[in-house]
Amino acid sequence: MDEHKGRLRASELEDSGDVGVNPTHNLTMGEIIATRFNRRDLLRGPLAVAAISATVGHRALAANEQPARKASNPISFDFKEIEAGVDHTHHVAEGYDAQVLLRWGDPLFPDAPEFDPMKQTPEAQARQFGYNTDFIGFIPLNGSADHGLLVANHEYTNEELMFPGVGVQDSKDANFSKMTPDLVAIEIAAHGGAVVEIRRADGKWQVVKDSKYNRRITADTPMEITGPAAGHERMKTSADASGRNVRGMVNNCAGGVTPWGTWLSCEENFNGYFWGKLSDDHPEAKNYKRYGIGTPAYAWGKFHDRFDLAKEPNEPNRFGWVVEIDPFDPNFVPKKRTALGRTKHEGAAGITNSDGHYVVYLGDDERFDYVYKFVTAGKVDPQNRAANFGLLDEGTLYVAKYNPDGTGNWLPVVHGQGPLTEANGFRSQADVLIETRRAADLLGATKMDRPEDIEANPQTNRVYVMLTNNTRRKEDQVDAANPRANNAFGHIVEMMPEGGNHAATDFTWEVLVKCGDPSVAAVGATFSSETTKNGWFGMPDNCAIDSQGRLWISTDGNNAKATGRADGLWALQTQGKGRGTSKHFFRVPVGGELCGPFFTPNDESLFLAVQHPGEVDEGMSTFENPATRWPDFKDNMPVRPSVLVITKQGGGKIA
């Protein structure tokens, strides 16, 4: 199409946060940290965390009326650290096994065909494990830590690694000349997610192919739109006059598992799926600009009208939501819960508050965008699973404002409050939620450095925000003691809700660590001095908190060029004298990104996902000539994104 001056490769969607579409003058996190700490408060390099630790200990006790319980073993990581580096395969700490459990194309049903990369079809892919798993969750069956349902997001596809003959298309090839209707149909089937029954027997995990629970969800699966935006005029299309039904979910990144056993799957970079450009005077033009819609990463709009803005201008409003799915019912219609807002959702990890309300923390993964939380109006009923299925349709969405004195406020994203009025274009709560970003702009929320996964520690009540990077931060926005200008390595913010109450509208905060190589003074990293040369990392992305209350960090963006090491999993101490000490546990093959992670309830199994292995040299790796053939290492097999499970040799907890 002539209006496309260029295109994004599918792999570039993850970095599309670099478009910098936040037009406000709201304070950035760097500017706030600049005021919060001066040169005398922070030390350069690896010793800086000591100053932060002393401050956070004092502030946390002052802020929390009832100090949270300490983790049972908050600083103990006993594994032998692996060496950082980059090569063709994965590595795990000594004494642990890393089993490849599910690969792209593995059949999930007794009648599903075996994977044949030279003869792949849309019908086959819809019965096989999808591509590029991000979030993984494990939901026990009958309370067992060795038998349960694995739920997995299939975020996006790499056409150059999936399909023979496609290769690396020129970035100016806006017409996707090598893509065909069949290849696009395979991509659509490879998106979405999967529910897979798995069981551990004789120390090994196995897929139960004949399970009644197994299911593939794709970018074409019928779904229901619920909550305040359901049925709104801006949600209606020619195929759905009700504004309540939509086909599929796309670019599902991280997520969460609720106490009532449902899976929350989060649409992130949905902007890259749409073709066309609206006229400047179109009612949705400013809305779509704020979400970066306009440069496609896929050929879908070439063959499907619903992804062409000229034909279906409202369709993008139906994406960018948190989707709730019941994995125990293969006929369950997934629900797009609009009450949680429309952003580029990284995840939706929640915690049951002390008063019974469910609180979901949400990151909008874009440079200079915001941190959110949602508090349900109703309370979790642990005795009645079905009663909880509407909880996420009613409640209050908040966006975070971080103050220079180390305090913070949750600002309600509610129609009629403050600037969220008809005078500013919001006629209802539906309008507020469809344009969540613009609403947060007007409220004066704090601009963050790509907020990704956010997890609450149920043992300490502290909340950890992964901020991957922000290479658009300018020198005049920070000083020498701040997360950096051209912040290539990211940082982690620790939040303490007032009185340990996650529903409260006030909190305190500290920077837990600034990431990067602490041996390079100019980087300004603040890992503990106990962190070894293998233990530091950059670009924190996802995280997990095990049953002992310990924090594990997975990364996205480490590579030979950026840091001289592959992405992987690091264990990070958050309390005691070892606060800020990081240890390297697992690393991915060249070109890969580590996603997940998720522990079984007994901490004896750890599920990890490796996305886009072999993707190197700005997409120059191809189906025919990949940078690695992990995990099969066979000449007739392409590189395959996969899910692994880590267990301790001889049994026991991962330590």
Automatic annotation (TrEMBL):
Transmembrane segments: none annotated. Residues 1-22 are annotated as: Disordered. It comes from the Bacteria. Pfam families: PhoX. Residues 1-12 have a biased composition (Basic and acidic residues). SUPFAM superfamilies: Calcium-dependent phosphotriesterase. InterPro entries: PhoX (IPR008557). This is PhoX family phosphatase. It comes from Microvirga splendida. The lineage of its organism: Bacteria, Pseudomonadati, Pseudomonadota, Alphaproteobacteria, Hyphomicrobiales.
